[in-house]
Amino acid sequence: MNYPEAQYPGRLLKAESSQIEKGKGALGGIGAEIMVPRLKDIVALLEDLAPAELAESWDNPGLQVGFLDHRIEKMVLSLDPTLQAVSYAWDHRAQLLLTHHPLIFRPMSSVKGGDYPGGVVYEAIRCGVSIVAVHTNLDAAHEGINAILGDLLGLERIDVLNNRDQSGPYRSKARIEPRRARTVQRTDLSKGNRTGIGRIGDLRAEKTLYELVTMVKGLLRVSSVRVVGKKDMKIRRVAVVGGSGGSLIREAYAKGADLLITGDVSYHQAREAEFFGLAVIDGGHFATEKVAFAAFGKQLAKEMEQRNWKVEILHNDKENDPIRAM
Predict the structure, then answer these.
(1) Which residues contact residue 176 at a Cβ distance below 8 angstroms, ignoring those fewer than 6 apart?
(2) What is the H or E stretch that residue 267 is in?
(3) How far apart are CA 160 and CA 19, in angstroms?
(4) Domain count, the chain
């Protein structure tokens, strides 16, 4: 059913024509056409950058809430689709909330204002804010979250850590050799294996674990991290998995990593890393993804500029990690 217009508190959103709205301006060059895309155009662009086929089977990226024909002139990037994020988008008069984590993972039988995630869905609809997520498909993408983290860390000769395995999420396929006689397994990116979970590469110069802890805290803008390993350990080869990567400890070790940087490492995963002599820096789920998602926003802005799309991108700078030390 087509609705000619929908009234939301303080805002009137109208259904648009089937073509991107065009105007004249300097964006993309003198006299170039400025285009105001619709939601479906941005969803298509995100599919080009992070194809849905790269997502894990349990994941649900893509459109969560919204109307594909709405024009998007302003969007907010936020790691999570929370009530705070929806309110931030509303306060800044943005039509789209682009998140890393999906809002809806399982089928919903109802949308209730006092429930989760129904309460967020309800508020987004009430405010006229669409929600789109790019999750494990962006994690695995060639220039996605993990590739960005590798670049931010200054890694060289970067490989994919875990080529996707349809049998389960983030599952290690590594064959473990004895600790003192392992054969390093490498991925040849020149053969087209450019997507997968995590990245692994070499530092330009060897560093101690303590030096890397200091560097990672600065990069992630956190005051503390959790660490497995002795501070004077020598580190040259580093694996990185944004978010939750403890399940890839074996993969990192098999591919020659001296250190795994990730989040959400469990007690038993830490013991596993300790056994293999693999250092771990757990910077937290939120922090390891937040910095990379912000950098992805810059990539997205460049892609839209190349298309002469007039879309302002804001970052939810009020978003905080829901877990904190006291």
Answers:
(1) 182, 250, 253, 254, 276
(2) helix 267-276
(3) 39
(4) 2
d(CA 197, CA 174): 14
Residues 126 and 228 in one domain: no
Question: How many Å apart are CA 183 and CA 195, to the nearest integer?
Answer: 23
Q: Indicate if 117 and 246 belong to the same structural domain.
A: no
Residue 323 belongs to a domain = no
Q: Which residue has the tokens 């893509």?
A: 62
User: Mean pLDDT in runs of 10 for the chain (326 residues)?
Assistant: 37 43 49 85 98 96 96 98 98 98 94 93 97 98 97 97 61 53 51 82 98 98 97 98 98 98 98 98 98 98 96 97 91
Distance CA 97, CA 65 (A): 10
Q: What's the predicted TM-score (pTM) here?
A: 0.85
164: number of Cβ within 10 Å: 20
**Residues present in the chain in total:** 326
SS3 letters across 156-217: EEEEEEECCCCCCCCCCCCCCCCCCCCCCCCCCHHHCCCCCEEEEEEEEEEEEHHHHHHHHH
Please tell me whether residues 191 and 82 are part of one structural domain. no
Give the CA dihedral 270, 214, 260, 80, nearest 10 degrees.
Answer: 90
Q: How far apart are CA 82 and CA 271, in angstroms?
A: 34
276 and 172 belong to one structural domain: yes
Whichever domain contains 179, its CATH number is 3.40.1390.30
Structural domain contains residue 325: no
Show the domain range for 66.
9-137+291-315
In a domain, 326, yes or no: no
